[in-house]
Amino acid sequence: MQVRELAVQGALEVTPRQFGDSRGLVLEWFRDDVFTRATGQRFDLQQANCSVSAAGALRGIHFADVPPGQAKYVTCLSGSVMDVVVDLRVGSPTFGRWDSVLLDDVDRRAAYLPVGVGHAFLSLADGSTVAYLCSAPYTPEREHGVHPLDADVGIRWPEVGRDGTPLTLELSAKDQVAPTLQEALDSGLLPRWTG
């Protein structure tokens, strides 16, 4: 496995080695020893999620109250997504910065998102299947969002899908009315940096 630090402090891209033959392939998409060496902590798995998205589905920017927060380890089992991490931790040296990782069924990378950051992804193909390992269970009253099209965050979302066709972005009703980063900051909604 190769581990690369992202532009958001504490976030990582993990590229596994794939071993294939005429039957298919096998890979390790998570290893506790590699993760612990890279982060200095063990991943406390509390929940595993899976989502399937149409091309153009834009999910996020989502984050959870801290404490306890919710760290995520994310991969794409089939299809392709642009996975994005946004530093929402007030006081962090990388506050407001974002970075992305292409997660797909070719390179089979994973992304680690530490507690306190925002997570979003855009599906680049119909049927994109994303699996998440989560450090805390989903608790609706502790979950929040920042609008994924907020110009101040400035995420450059792809305009075409994996097959080259134009994408029409589709957001959930909740994400459509999410506050901007400045509104979330002004309201005291964002987590604080504890690093």
Main features:
mainly beta; 13 strands; 5-stranded antiparallel sheet; 6-stranded antiparallel sheet; 195 residues; Jelly Rolls
Mean pLDDT: 97
Backbone structural class: mainly beta
Helix content: under 10%
CATH topology: Jelly Rolls
Can you walk me through this structure?
This protein is mainly β and 195 residues long. It has a single domain (2-186), classed as Jelly Rolls. The chain contains three helices and 13 strands. A hairpin with a 6-residue loop joins β1 and β2 (12-15). The two termini are 26 Å apart.
Q: Which helices and strands appear, and what pairs or packs with what?
A:
Blueprint: E1 2-5, E2 12-15, E3 18-21, E4 24-27, H1 32-39, E5 47-53, E6 58-64, E7 72-78, E8 80-87, E9 98-104, E10 110-113, E11 117-123, E12 128-134, E13 143-145, H2 173-176, H3 181-186
Antiparallel strand pairs: 1-2, 2-10, 3-4, 5-12, 6-11, 6-13, 7-10, 7-12, 8-9, 8-11
Brief sketch in words of this structure:
This protein is mainly beta. Helices cover 9% and strands 37% of the residues. The chain has a single domain (2-186), classed as Jelly Rolls, CATH 2.60.120.10.
